[in-house]
Amino acid sequence: MLQSRALVIALILLLSTSLPEVHSKSIYERDRRDWLVIPDAIASYIYETVNKMSPKVGQFLVDAAQTPAVVATRNFLIKETTKFSILIEQLMEKIANLWYTRVLGY
Hints:
Layout: H1 2-14, H2 19-23, H3 37-53, H4 55-65, H5 68-103
Helix pairs in contact: 1-4, 3-4
C-alpha cells in the first residue's frame, strides 16, 4: 500500500502539465528556455502507459496534476529556470565577446 502511494506521488510530480501542452513542445528545440520540457515528455509517456492500463488511474493523475499546489510549483520552477537560462545566455555572450576581443583580437 505504501509503495503504491509513493508511486502515485512520484507520478503526480512527473505529470505536472496538461497533455496537449506536452505534445506541442519539441524536446530538442534550440531556442527554448523551458528546462521542464524533458520531464514533461517523460510525464506524458508515463501518463499514456498508465492510461492504457487503467483509464481511471490516468484520469486521477490528470486531475491531481492540475491541483493548485502542483500548478503553482510548476509555474514557480518555470519562472526561476527561465531567469537562470537568461543569465546563462548573457554569460555565454560575455565570454564569447571576451574571447573575440581579448584572445583573438577582433
